[in-house]
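Researcher: I need the complex structure. Ligand is LQESDW3C. Inputs:
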Amino acid sequence: MDYPGNLFVVAAPSGAGKSSLVKALLEIDSQLQLSVSHTTRAPRGQEKHGRDYFFTSQPEFDAMVAGNAFVEWAHVHGQRYGTSKKAIEDRIAQGADVILEIDYQGALQITQAFANAVLIFILPPSWEELRSRLERRGEDPTDVIEMRLKNASEEMAQAHKFDFVIINELFERAVFDLKAIVHAQRLRYAAQRRTRAATFESLNIP
Ligand SMILES: Nc1ncnc2c1ncn2[C@@H]1O[C@H](COP(=O)(O)OP(=O)(O)OP(=O)(O)O)[C@@H](O)[C@H]1O
Ligand SMILES: Nc1nc2c(ncn2[C@@H]2O[C@H](COP(=O)(O)O)[C@@H](O)[C@H]2O)c(=O)[nH]1
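Model: Output:
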């Protein structure tokens, strides 16, 4: 299916900074809309249902899986997370650009449904810095931080499957890189759609 809007998928190991980067991008790019995921994990301190996540019980999540409501879903750090079709399809069909913050398994599933999706992987500058970001964030207990760090090596081994990799060392630099990727994709996709429309017109294809 060929939608007029763009789809951007940002993945990273926990603590690399993807939520912070996406938040900064959304503040300067009014064309971009965030897809809010469903999760079975409990809300953290300031998190709000419907804004950060749709916090969903296990039976509700099961029902959504059975009802084919997700475009992708995965087990991540011992919980389930998923992107509903509702969160993206209508919006990109209407020409909005949508950005997803999800794990690598979900990102790879997205490419099955949306071949034009742009996949961006965020890396931390070092293991020490990744640990220190998770600790400084102070949102997760030690055992959860250890599990997230353990899972990070498997996640980072998938980075080569993505269209772009950004190292989030200096925050402002990483925001700039992300912004540049979004801008380049908009130009590329608009040119592609113009070329296709002109070809169809010349061949008299409705
Ligand atoms: N470039 C950076 N330099 C220093 N600290 C950063 C940088 N980017 C993000 N951080 C900090 O690192 C912590 C983790 O960032 P963030 O919550 O955005 O990570 P995440 O990848 O979205 O993690 P998760 O997948 O667990 O939600 C936050 O406290 C954030 O303020
Ligand atoms: N496959 C999906 N992964 C998702 C989705 N939403 C978030 N995530 C991933 O979960 C981890 C942990 O998030 P946290 O909020 O508990 O720290 C995060 O790093 C994402 O990679 C989703 O819809 N699908």
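Model: Summary of the prediction. The first strand starts at residue 7 and ends at 11.
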